[in-house]
């Protein structure tokens, strides 16, 4: 049964490391801050009365729920688990998100082809560490396939440079 | 019961063009669902724009295909890679992955497909019988009842995963808050729009689902991109042997019943039922020690159960208009996009649409079985593609899909922002499920709450004075008490089920 043992020895996907006390506190602080900000904005709307609720009443109730649950999470920082420590990979996530924002802002200006090729190149080469050759082939190929699917087949009016 | 709308529904569903859409739906549902890390809710969210431009009947049929395909995609990854796409296939991974290590992945997946088909189909038949009666009761519901019902729905979803209840409540609160962005539903006052017209119509549900589930999951998986990729085990043949079939037969039947019954309960139906089915099989087995080491019943029972439960969780959606879990919430949004409002009125006012939805589920199930056995090999090959290649392709399809909903680049910005929110929620231990569900139910909850307050003249105690709403308040209180108990039981079952049966 030796082959089974080699099977077992291969790396299983490991569980992410749990976050510390600080992250647990952040998890509680975020709802409190969000709720407080929303409550302040709701108060500037008309609250009305229970008989005749104004536009601000419901958001105010929801804000209260957020503040209370956030305070509850803060109160049990020692017990509540479930956070995950940020790893170095988080830098890649941030970079990817910035790239996506840039993608969205270029999209309507210069059409979808160039931003798509650039986005795919960045993700494949720098996040995925593919070779330059497969990066080039894949980014052009996927963009062409997207063109065929969305513009030619589904007839979605994506902004595009190349007219066929 | 008048059977004619049921039969007309069938004739529509089996038109060749609609068969094709269902086939397409099952295929791409499996294709995206098999990508590690993308559960059924994320898969359906990413694929929503494809159905957007279709006519309603075809769109609903395609969605049913995507739904079953996505569910099965999660089963494939849990058996082959021990990476369940969602909580309800966690137990499948226990014995399924052991079978895969022995080179019997094919027959494990084959049995899973047959079990899913039987569980799902049995559940649809039962749904057809139960749903009309339930919808009849629900027709008497007024704003007060809907307020309580929506609260029950949101509360129960806190049990979706393993997250803490208080964090689920906070996530639900954030979802409710996001739902208030836009014009006030009754008075038209702009709320939280920060002066921009882009937010005046509120935020489209599809953007929220695609951002939080789609973009969020992709970003989350990106963080751990350096992890070694698990090797895909040898596959074997997809048709189960005679012995395996004989062993699974009764497990499938038991799992179907367990799944249907538990699936009607909103919240963790599919997850609960797969765990209970596993426990039932282990307990009733002649040799329980085989479990955890590759017992085929440990795949058959839970798979029949989770598919039966996934199907019967359509009942609260179709009869009450209350989605029971995150996947149902996404489907709720998808049906709304097609101008179909799930709820008690659907069956009485548009029986053709209702039976069309139900009958396309039969078709989705049937095609899943027909496709999965010959095509498992193809989908398994998908798993061998490096995530570094799959992630960029998925993100481009998602972004273009987001744009295509309203032809608006601002929606892409929103989706990325919500993706970051989803990523941060995962890191801080909040489940995106309650957030999305609360977002969907937000306007219903607010609208019916405010209408009830007007009817009641501001007296909150009226909620417990009207017999119907008082009964529902009773149910709410009961669930508040019972759910924590159920969670403890479930936690014990997970521990027991996961116990390695050491030789």
Task: Describe the model.
The complex is a heterodimer of chains A (164) and B (503). Chain A is mainly alpha-helical and 164 residues long. Chain A has 2 domains: 1-87, no CATH class; 89-153, no CATH class. Chain A contains 6 helices and no strands. Chain A is flat, with a radius of gyration of 25 Å. Residues 1-13 of chain A have low confidence and may be disordered. With 503 residues, chain B is mostly helical. Chain B has helices at 4-13, 16-33, 40-52, 56-81, 90-101, 105-138, 143-157, 165-179, 205-223, 242-264, 269-284, 297-312, 314-320, 326-337, 344-349, 351-382, 387-406, 409-428, 432-456, 467-498, and strands at 182-183, 190-191. In chain B, strands 1-2 form a two-stranded antiparallel ribbon. In chain B, helix 2 packs antiparallel against helix 3 and helix 6 (105-138) runs parallel beside helix 10. The longest helix of chain B is centred in the first third of the chain and has 34 residues, at 105-138. The mean pLDDT of chain B is 82. Chains A and B meet through helix 1, helix 2, helix 3, helix 4 and helix 5 of A and helix 8, helix 9, helix 17, helix 18 and helix 19 of B. Chain B: Residues 19-437 form the DUF112 domain.
Mean pLDDT over the full residue set of chain B: 82
- Principal-axis shape of chain B: globular
Strand content of chain B: under 5%
* Whole-angstrom Rg of chain B: 22 Å
Which regions of chain A are unreliable across 5 or more consecutive residues at pLDDT < 50?
Answer: 1-13
Helix content of chain A: 55-70%
> Biggest sheet of chain A: strands, sense, closure?
none
Kindly name the structural category of chain A. mainly alpha
Tally the helices of chain A. Answer: 6
* Quaternary structure state of the chains depicted: heterodimer
Q: Mean pLDDT of chain A, as a whole number?
A: 84
Proportion of helical residues of chain B: over 70%
Main sheet summary of chain B: 2 strands, antiparallel
Pfam families (chain B): TctA
Domain DUF112 (chain B): 19-437
Protein name (chain B): Tripartite tricarboxylate transporter permease
Transmembrane segments (chain B): 20-48, 60-81, 108-130, 137-157, 199-220, 257-280, 317-340, 360-380, 387-403, 432-449, 469-489
